[in-house]
Design brief:
The structure is a homodimer of 175-residue chains. With 175 residues, the first copy, chain A, is α+β, with helices and mostly antiparallel strands. Chain A has one domain: Gcn5-related N-acetyltransferase (GNAT) (Aminopeptidase). Chain A has 4 helices and 9 strands. In chain A, strands 1-2-3-4-5-6-7 form a 7-stranded mixed sheet. In chain A, a hairpin with a 2-residue loop joins strand 4 and strand 5. The relative contact order of chain A is 0.14. Chains A and B meet through helix 2, strand 5, strand 6, strand 7 and helix 4 of A and helix 2, strand 5, strand 6, strand 7 and helix 4 of B.
Chain lengths: 175, 175
């Protein structure tokens, strides 16, 4: 976090079987205008408006996806995390990521995104720190992802390694 | 399959919510000795003896893992597949793989193994063909894995690509 300051962690709601407890953490608070403050929250709730998520993904240039499939993917992810900007009564989704997992050894991150307006403020790093913390709390030690070329450096700064011991990420797509 | 001949597919048992139906397929049958035959079966049952799986994994030089965690990983995999050699009343686990998934877009393969005694007969290819077929039946189109250097060529033959469009597999391990 560069200008956002971590404040406190709030206890969460009971979780679905075998999954991490849902929680919400106030990451940062600062003056906004007219004496108002704005807050940034990290959340592990799966209660995500699919239109809002779509807007976030379109903002970084990703392709539109059927909501039915996105809903299914969220339901069946091991961990779903999001970043929220709160100004007064308004709450806006500004970051998202999710992980599939076997709940034991491996997790794989998908759909890691921070809204372009909020990039360059350390929020991506904060998001990743929280994801790693959540997964480590679940005793998962092999955290993997598939990085587009332009974000490889970012993940390397977070401690991710490319091709360790010659291991290669590989993809199969329908012909 | 090189010398094994595909014969028929048997219907499976009802599946857990959202997961593929369990099924068993007779892949091959040939004479053994004393007029007996031997069969090779492909199965998607999760009913795997953990000691037998451990023996298979140790045979290819993998590290021993706590059964508690292996059990949890199998329970929480989207797809679990295995190859069995049947000779009379004896049934032996000779291949295994599993996949994590969000049940919608992505699947990631883990623990793909064929016993060294049965390598070089096309069984790895058969196992992968069946996995891809199962995942495609679930409408999952992005099948991923992390390949050790010595098996990259094998997966390339199966149609897997390394680093497509510069996308890199990345790993985070606890420090």
């Amino acid at each position: 976090m560069t200008f956002w300051k971590s404040l406190f962690a709030a206890p969460g709601t009971p979780a679905a079987a075998g999954r991490p407890r849902e929680k919400e953490i106030l990451l940062a608070e600062k003056p906004y205008r007219n004496g108002e403050t704005q807050q940034i929250y990290f959340s592990t709730s799966r209660d995500i408006d699919l239109y809002e998520l779509e807007e976030l993904c379109l903002a970084v240039g990703w392709a539109r996806r059927p909501h039915r499939k996105v809903r299914k993917a969220i339901e069946n992810s091991f961990l779903v995390v999001s970043l929220w900007l709160e100004r007064g009564a308004q709450r806006r989704l500004i970051g998202f990521a999710r992980a599939t997992s076997d709940h034991a050894f491996n997790a794989t991150l998908w759909d890691v995104v921070v809204h372009p307006e909020f990039q360059g403020q350390g929020l991506g790093k904060t998001l990743m720190d929280q994801i790693i913390r959540e997964l480590r709390q679940q005793d998962i030690s092999n955290i993997t992802l598939f990085a587009d070329p332009q974000v490889i450096g970012f993940y390397q700064q977070m401690g991710f390694l490319t091709d360790p011991e010659g291991i290669k990420g590989m993809f199969w797509y329908p012909r």
